Amino acid sequence: MRMATIAIQLKIEGERIVPGLAEAGERLDSAEGEMILDFSSVRQLDASALRAMERLAAAADDKSIKLVLRGTSIDVYRVLKLVKLAPRFSFAN
Amino acid sequence: MTKTLSTPKEERLTYLEGLVDQARTAAAVFTQCTQEEVDRIVKAMVLAGIGQAQHLARLAIDETRIGVLEDKILKNMVATEFVYNYIRDKVTVGPIREFPERGLVEVAEPIGVIFSLIPITNPTSTVLFKCIMAIKARNAVIFSPHPSAWRCSSEAVRIMYESAVKHGAPEGVFTCLDSHTLEDNAYLMHHKDVALIDATGGPSAVKAAYSSGKPALGVGPGNTPVYLEKTADLNMAVVDIIVSKTFDNGTICASEQTVVIDDEIYDLAMKKFDDMGAHICTEKESELLGRALVDPQTGCMQPIAVGQKATDIARLAGVAVKPNSKLLLARIHGVGREHPLSVEKLCPVLSVYRAKSADEALRVCVDVNHAGGLGHTAVIFSRNDELIRKFSEVINAGRIIVNAPGSIGALGGIYNDMVPTFSFGCGTAGGNSTTDNINVYHYLNIKRLARRTPAHMWFRVPNHIYFDLNAVENLRQFPSRSTVIITNPALERIGHADIVRRYLPPQASVHISVIPDAEPEFKVIMQGVEALNVYQADQIIALGGGSMIDAAKIMKIKYESPEADLEELAAPFLDIRKRVVQYPTEKTNRARLIAIATTSGTGSEVTPFAVLFDKERGRKVTLADYSLTPDVAIVDPQFVMSMPKGLTADTGIDCLTHALEAAVSTYASPYTDCNAVQAIRLVFKYLTVAYEHPHDQEARTMMHNAACIAAMAFSNAGVGVNHALAHAFGARFGVAHGRANALMLPHVIAYNASIPTKFRPSPNQRAYIAHKKYATIAELLGLGGHTIDEKVKSLVASIEQLLNELAMPRCIAALGITKEAFEQALPDLVSTAFDDPSWLTNPRMPLMSELEELFRSAYQGRETAKGTGAGQQAA
């Protein structure tokens, strides 16, 4: 029998992406299999944000936690594709 | 856990991968920048470059010991100010150009990561130029400067980078290799995340770039010939050449290498060079220069002399010159390895050739062009436009500079309106992919957003159509001096030609040309043309059925345009608007063509088609062009009252087939639909009446109108697969066209009403709707049915009933054609039908196997209860 789990959900603010992702990294341990990051207010990614996402993805991989980005704009999605980070996340509306 | 120490090679690869990763991230982030943000960054970079122009020039001179400080400053200014002037208003983000009338939008897409080689000759200006272009196009660049110019180039990169990032460019957008090795270059050239190589440099660098398999802009050496022609403004030419060849001590690869001077002005030109501070070498001095400057093994210039002053080069060669000599002019007597100075010399040494004629001058210029300068640059000074044009034709150069300095002229934007650049594309002859001055558009991928363009349709019919009883009287209103009536013996015998003659204007001299009533062959056509020529006809009246009217159409072509090649005019085409062969518009004679139909089927009196029988090859040749359409059509039922029953039935079904095929054609339009549907209604109402009661004037009139109306529809919408099958079958077994159509019709409707196995590209067709159109026709005829399928079945059943009423054979077997004969003919029938252009507008693209199946169905006949295959779709 499987226990029902409630995924952690975090909103990533467009103005403080790096701190938001850092907080997400800290809460990975308490996530049970999945973490949902609300990206709906993120309009742009810079290099530091991309590095933070790379770090978070690596940490999540280590802990076998699935990262789901919700509300990702197509521009942000395209950047993740270009830097080849997109396959490391799941995307939801 | 112990950490394994990396080898130097691994450390180097880690370093290079870091550069690429940084650039890739920057390029990705950069895609989010708007045009306004990009333009703000570019302007800031340009100002930074202008501010550091002198600083960078000094660094370049100090490090490379090549060129002239003042000129390097100027180059840095051109690379910033002039380039900016060109790109400032260019749109490079999002939609960059729109062509609304063509439904096209060009959309910019950044390239991504560019790996860029920088030459020693222009080590800072080239960096400034490439950085500005890269930012304008939202790309990231990894620079690899020449090892002997690394400090100045990397300083230029730094200045550009700091300015760019300060004003909003992503970090890592420019990086510079910390040292230069061929291994590093090769690694980066082959890196999967490097999208483009921009190699400005020597032949080996360009070759390496192109050999990498990556998209590359490779710009290499030149060997610029300059033709100083006798009509030139000599004072201007001499100064321009000196300006160009001494600019930065001749380091620009577009600078003049050999000046070819017309004999008539040679002495004067040399004096003017001398007056302006050039040293004219003696034969001996020229020889010394050749030995000093050119490596006898490679035939190339010695690197030590690149960008050095004229006086220093003279000293190197052991030639005594005045201390202020700007340029060394050395006479050559030919081009090639035995004439060392005929090669590229990136220094203030200019070869001179004395040409005894323009032909010789052009020949030598071509020789120089081919001796290492293909695709690059050439210069001509002349006032003779014809000669300038000839020069441009025989010289293979991306830039042909007229009456201006070669090097600065080629840079663009100063002496002419070419695009400012520091990279010259040399075309395929130079091993490059472009002859352009490399500019910001080469740093972009340009996407084309192509909207579906509306296919402009048409509706073309004769200018005049007169119909109903006694319409022939309208002939009176067409003035003519000489009218020739083309008709057949039977029609003449029963007095039809006399009726026509009665209504011609009294002043017209009227002649009758009688031809056999059959599909016209070439010999018959030419007999008719002879009659037209003899009588100098200004009016042709075609009186007869389809064959007669077709014959008159072709006679008219050959009469008006005797040179017209009928075989060529019959060449097949996909789209009448894009066809290869154009019908003649130049007319020797002009004649009005009036068509009077004596059958109610083909509608040839309003169509742009004519069929010619090629007796020699035993085949029919179809001509199609709107110029074949008669000028006047007369649809007078008095000429069809005597049609026999069989002919009434055959032509009536031909008319019905025309209308049904036009209705479901991929070229159908509201203009053709109304005609097609009305013709179908008239046929269903009046054909059996006309068949059973040949003297019923109303029925005859309406069937005559129906044939003409259906022809107006298919003249503009085309026909379909039914006609392709009927043409093949009719020709093979000698079956009348209408009858052959009848044999196929129920099968073709069932076939067309089912979802196509294969769709054919057809911009006119927005969706597959043939089944719905058949259903609509059934509704309009009041045939019953609730679903589309039921309505289509009703239509097919009604047609079958009509065919029965007309005593039409209902299967090929009923014609007495044996199964064996049919099977034997089948492969040819299928092949001929597939080659028939009639089906090109059919709603289903027929596969060969489907054509075969249709023929087989027609042979066996149809069970009316079978479904159409359209499915139970709601109407």
Q: Specify the structural class of chain B.
A: alpha/beta
| Unreliable stretches covering 5 or more consecutive residues of chain A | none
Strand order of the largest sheet of chain B: 10-11-12-9-8-13-14
As a percent range, the share of strand residues of chain B is 5-15%
Straight-line distance between termini of chain A: 30 Å
Structure description:
The complex is a heterodimer of chains A (93) and B (875). Chain A has helices spanning 17-26, 47-62, 74-82; strands at 8-11, 34-38, 66-70, 90-92. Chain A has one domain: STAS domain (Transcription Regulator spoIIAA), CATH 3.30.750. The N and C termini of chain A lie far apart (30 Å). In chain A, helix 1 (17-26) runs parallel beside helix 2 (47-62). With 93 residues, chain A is α/β, with parallel strands linked by helices. Chain A is built from three helices and four strands; from the N terminus they run E-H-E-H-E-H-E. The mean pLDDT of chain A is 92. In chain A, strands 1-2-3-4 form a four-stranded parallel beta sheet, covered by helices on one side. In chain B, 44% of the residues lie in helices and 15% in strands. At the A-B interface, helix 3 of A face helix 1 of B.
